Amino acid sequence: MLVLAFVLSAFCGGLIVGCGGDDAPAVPQTIVLFTGDTWRFDHVSAYAPPDADAPVPRTTQVDRLAATGLAFTDARTPVPLTLPAHTTMLAGLPPAATGVRLNTYGHLPARAARGFPLLPEVLRDAGWRTAAFVSCAVLGKRYGLDQAFDHYDDGDLDDTSQATVAERAGAETVALALAWLRAQPRDARVFVWVHIFEPHAPYVANGTYAGDIAAADAVVGTFLSGLDATRGSDAAVLFTSDHGEALGELKEPTHGFLLADGVLRVPFLLRVPGRGPAQRADPADLADVAPTLAGLAGVAWPQHTGPGTGRDLLAAPAPADRIRFAESLYGHQVHRFAQLSAAHGPTGSLVDAGRDRLAWLPRLGWRRILESIALPPDTPEVRALGKALAEYRQSENSARMGTGNDSAGGYGGGGPVAPFLSPEENARLLDPHVGILQHQALDAVKLPILASRRLPPERRRQALEAALERLAALDRPHLLAGSPERAFWEGEARNEWALTTEGAGGAFTRAAAAYLRAFELGRKDTETLVRACGADAMSHEAAMLERLELLAREVPAPGCRYWLLRARLTGRLEELRLLPAGSHAAACAQAEAHCESRREREIWLGTCR
């Protein structure tokens, strides 16, 4: 009995919050969710084993949380992309259930329509003040997470490039969050989500991922010091990331396509007033964020069921054999590669690329990466993972699928989001583990196309001609012949070349044809629609307006740029007296109603003033 009493005391006092009695923590006045984008698990030095032989960047500021709180050593994301991963955090549900599967998403429906609440909505119902401060356009208000918060600051970011994502410095975002916290009454209960985009590529500090990690760590330190000074050291803080970075694992340089540990294992550090420090080895998932923080706030959380749903990690540890899931539809979205889904067990991951294309990714040690995939062994764990993965794939709610009508730069891809394909259909597509090299080859062409804009005309044409040759080499069977993204970038290169060459009307026609091919292959977003109908519009305004309005039927709720091009074409046709007076003004009024960001408003003024 004495031994049992000791065990129960240690169990409730050392690892688990919420066992009752005097050890149950009081509800904190302040709860913070801090997400560092693209932060690998093994780039938090507090996680390093004592005998680690590989160097690791020293993250002294993030380590402050580990030194005083709970450090979950086995946490995973269900998707290696920013918007769907953060949606999972706030909803407590996997991407297959939320319907937010990619960065490109039309708009998250209102609470009643989507059928599930977000954490800040539940907290707001209970009287909490809620705010969010995010650092990239992928999390902009246009995608709908803002509706859950009293205050949502996205910096009015809008994507202007197809190869990078508009962002603001984490230091600026943190300063705004701290100013908001200082403005709140000291006795008010507040929940704030702070997101910094560092260390997402392209890496700025020393041009390396490790350099960006160090810079981001300093930003975390600034926030923690300001938080303690403003709200007191009893504020609860959960630090995690939406996903990691592959850094060459399975030949993937960054993230989004494959489902190995480098992109799926994330830091998960929870500072709870009066608890810790302690390490937790039970399996955690980003879907656990919402129910865990709701429990910490003393607020009831819906009891969701189904594969991949979250749990309150402070109420009880997750079982060691918990199966977690992951998916990547990104390769299918941008290149029409096969979709990937995975189930994770205690010793490894089963990855499905269609029918018999199953891979086994063993769990590796500290700072190690996989060089190649292997066939799954016939073990009870693998059989259980296969059964669970089939259940996960069948559990998706296709009615909640994102429309993908707005492009989030080259990081999004654009176009309606396809639900899980049948195993047979998926098996007919190129395995992303093979296609990742072709994707890298295309990536190597994108930035030179954009950089050519800064070159003198003759050198610019030469650079673009070289890019077109490299794109042609990828337009072969078993490479990227059916890739919407490859066709789009051919359009970009041809359009840029035409802009520098006199008498290049035919080049604009070829650019428009490439954009149209990208659209027909599935890149059915506003950006591609506008390029397909705008590149060859000069002297063909009537034909392009007709094409624009016809193709727009395939883009759910086309965005601002569609309405602006429609207004331009209408204005020109009115000048030519091919449309009645007032047509341009009416089109401009429609465009104004759809243009919200600062950048969009500036373009609207230039078009409709």
Molecular structure report:
With about 600 residues, the protein is an alpha/beta fold. It contains 22 helices and 15 strands. The chain has three domains: about 30-315, 3-Layer(aba) Sandwich (Alkaline Phosphatase, subunit A), CATH 3.40.720.10; about 430-525, no CATH class; about 525-609, no CATH class. A hairpin with a 5-residue loop joins strand 14 (about 350) and strand 15. It is globular and about 75 Å long. The termini are far apart. The relative contact order is 0.12. Residues about 1-20 have low confidence and may be disordered.
Number of helices: 22
Low-confidence spans: 1-22
Give average pLDDT, whole number: 90
Structural class: alpha/beta
- The shape, in one word, is globular
CATH A-level architecture of the largest domain: 3-Layer(aba) Sandwich
How much of the residues is beta strand, in percent?
5-15%
What is the C-alpha radius of gyration, as a whole number of Å? 25 Å
Q: Percent helix among the residues?
A: 40-55%
Q: N-to-C terminal Cα separation, in Å?
A: 83 Å
Biggest beta sheet attributes: 8 strands, mixed
- How many structural domains? 3
The CATH H-level homologous superfamily of the largest domain: Alkaline Phosphatase, subunit A
Please provide the count of β strands.
15
Short description:
This protein is of the alpha/beta class. The chain is built from 22 helices and 15 strands. It has 3 domains: 29-317, Alkaline Phosphatase, subunit A (3-Layer(aba) Sandwich); 430-523, no CATH class; 526-609, no CATH class.
